[in-house]
Amino acid sequence: MGKNNQGTIKDIQKISEEVYSVKIYAPTVDEILPGQYISILCEGLTFRRPFSVSDFDNHIITVLIKKRGKGTEYILSRKVGSSIEFSAPLGNVFSVENKKTLLIGAGIGAAPLFYLNKKLKELKVKTFFAAGFLSKDDIIVTPHPTLSRKGRGEYDFVSTDDGSNGNKGSICDYLEKLIAEFKPEKIVSCAPRPVLKIVAQTAQQHGLDCEICMEKVMACGIGVCRGCVIQLMQGDRVINKTVCKDGPVFNGKEVVWQ
Amino acid sequence: MAVKTLDLSVEINGFEMKNPIITASGTYGYNNEFDVFCDVKALGAIVTKGITLEPRSGNEGERIFETTGGMINRIGLENIGIEAFLKEKLPVLNKCGIDFILNIAGNTPEDYIKLAQIAQKNNIKAIELNVSCPNVQHGCIEFGTNKQTLYELVQMVRKNYEHCLIVKLSPNVTSAEEIAEAAQNGGADAVSAINTVRGMGVKLDFLNGRFKKTTVSGGLSGQCIKPVALSFVDRISKVIDIPIIAIGGITSFEDVLEFFSVGAKAVQIGTANFTHPNAAEKLVNDLKKFMIQYNFSNLSELQQAVKGV
Question: Is residue A95 part of a domain?
Answer without folding.
Answer: no
